[in-house]
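User: For a teaching handout, I'd like to show students what a predicted protein-ligand complex looks like in token form. I'll give you the sequence and the SMILES for fe (ii) ion. Please answer with just the structure.
Assistant: Understood, here is the input followed by the structure.
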Amino acid sequence: MIVGPMLDEWYPVGIFGQLDEAGRKTMLMGEPIVVARNGNGDARVTDSTGRSLPVRVRYGHVWTSLGDPQKELFAIPEADQPGRRFVDVGVVRVRCSPLRAVENFLDIAHFPFVHTDILGAEPHTEVQAYKVEIREDVDEVWATQVQFYQPQAAKSASGGITTQYMYRVAGPTSTVLYKTCPPKPSEWDVITLFVQPLTEDLCDVWPWMALFDDDTPMTDLIHFQQTIFLQDRSILENQVPRLLPLDPGMEMPTRADLTSVAYRRWLKRHNFTYGAQLVAQ
Ligand SMILES: [Fe+2]
């Protein structure tokens, strides 16, 4: 298996606050790795030969790369904003392509059918027009002016609201969602999906949040997000084909899929193909 340019990107491999000196054995793109905390309290990641890999600790997680990252880990300025609660949601293992996990997170059309009475509800199933672009200066995919009616948009929402969304693809398996913040309308809640590619069709998904919500207990915030993602897992594990097709026309795009089309185009442009299917089979 040739990993290609995705080798040089950053990936999440664990929650920093949960590391100990014994370390956590895991895998990155088929390579066994150990993520540990050394005596100084710093994170350390080693591969199967004992080689130390590059490490960053950001957004509650440890990040590493099997290759030689040419870019610094992407910025989330909200992570340094006073007053936010930072939520390490934990890990959900999903038997699907890491790229499929990201693509599903970018899709709003499934809300009424998969997250019924939470993130969507019939008859509010229509996806309104929104904007999608690849921002060349930062080399990221952005979808803006997305809106959707939600019965329970967040733990802090009381009753249904029309929620505004922005989606951002900051790395091949890292995506950031900005959504209406019910208790603080001038700000966005930040909900991320950081995906660790274990193999091409198996991943660990690490959601993380930076919210304005002083009231909801931490366990309820975690439980709310885990409930949502477990609903997604059953969909993701049944998608066919298992790998994400990157050739146009292999899956018929609709207007609601514009973000997905841009994401696939961006992956293809960078030759980010680990977890992708390139030719119809
Ligand atoms: Fe979902």
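For the handout, you might add this sentence: The pocket of fe (ii) ion is lined by residues 110, 114-115, 232 (CB under 6 Å).
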